[in-house]
């Protein structure tokens, strides 16, 4: 199973580069798009929403890798918006939270968002993608 598109939201260019490399190598997704913070990602979803209402289809990501600590808008704030009525048409998109440290409180908090399917520690790896492939089946 290969996804059509995934979105990586992270403010660190090295993480994004690694994300692209590992994903390309493991045939996990045909296309990888990136955003540097939650706000950038939300404006991307607004573009999809606006364009797709005008009889043109922009593909939407099936999976989001989300970093928690980012300037402008962090992961939690992104999830609050993404979980709201305004973005309800995207509620089938799954989110995997990626964090450099796994705080048990964060882990609990992430379970409040229905779209979050997992909370994993960075960096993204081949074995992590294999694990997610099985989970997404």
SSE inventory with pairings:
Blueprint (H helix, E strand, L loop, with lengths): L2 E7 L3 H13 L3 E7 L2 H15 L10 E5 L7 H8 L11 E6 L4 H7 L5 E6 L4 H11 L1
Parallel strand pairs: 1-2, 1-3, 3-4, 4-5
Write a concise keyword list for the protein shown above.
137 residues; alpha/beta; Rossmann fold; five-stranded parallel β-sheet; 5 helices; 23% strand
Going by CATH, the architecture would be 3-Layer(aba) Sandwich
Major sheet strand order: 2-1-3-4-5
Overall strand count: 5
- CATH fold description: Rossmann fold
Strand portion, in percent? 15-25%
> Mind summarizing the main beta sheet?
5 strands, parallel
Low-confidence stretches: none
Helix content: 25-40%
Order of helices and strands: EHEHEHEHEH
Total domain units: 1
CATH class: Alpha Beta
Describe this structure in words.
This protein has five helices and five strands, in the order E-H-E-H-E-H-E-H-E-H. With 137 residues, the chain is an alpha/beta fold. Helix 2 (38-52) runs parallel beside helix 3. The longest helix is centred in the first third of the chain and has 15 residues, at 38-52. The mean pLDDT is 93.
Summarize the structure.
The chain has 137 residues and is an alpha/beta fold. It has helices at residues 13-25, 38-52, 75-82, 104-110, 126-136; strands spanning 3-9, 29-35, 63-67, 94-99, 116-121.
